[in-house]
Structure prediction request, 213 residues.
Amino acid sequence: MNTPAPLTRPDFAEMTGIHDNAVLDRLEAYLTHLEKWQRAINLVGPKTLADPWRRHILDSAQLVPLLPETPTPLKLADLGSGAGLPGLVLAIMTDVEMHLIESDQRKATFIREAARMTATTVTVHNARIEDVTPLGADVVTARALAPLSRLLPWVHRHLKISGKALLLKGAEADEELTVARKNWTINLTRKRSLSDASGTVFIIDDLVPITDV
Prediction:
């Protein structure tokens, strides 16, 4: 399979229909900040920085059209945010109340600094996901955090009853789903990832434990 040429800022704008230069400038500032910090902290896979607009910005931004429509700002919880992905990108692009949970202190510091550099208002919880008081979020997001069987209890903890989970999963998505369904009733829709041919977006509108998990 041929590797596609790196996605550029104009390519991203064309693919997503986002032509607001103020937003694009903030996304570019985030990437500049990420590349700077990556030299000292392993925030993302080093190879992904050869195509950052695709691997990080588009990968996160593809969730924007999947967010519920509501007259009031949504409350989002991003689990295991790492470099702030997808949560910080979503906060830059939308009017949401964003909570990012990251247990690693250095990564949490990066997220706070990246939010400051991009003039983005977020709340960073530097703690383990299971130690944060349930957030009752309208939407819970996570990217490459854990297998679905481990991830769903964390999602369930922070998602309100009528909420939606948007989970970015890789090539093992089907196997993970088979295992997870032994313990969970899941109302799930899936979409092919726009940024990774082997990736999948799981959209979960209803999540109910079958057993005590």
Notes: The chain has one domain: 9-209. The longest strand covers residues 159-169. Residues 45 and 204 are 27 Å apart (CA to CA). The mean pLDDT is 95.
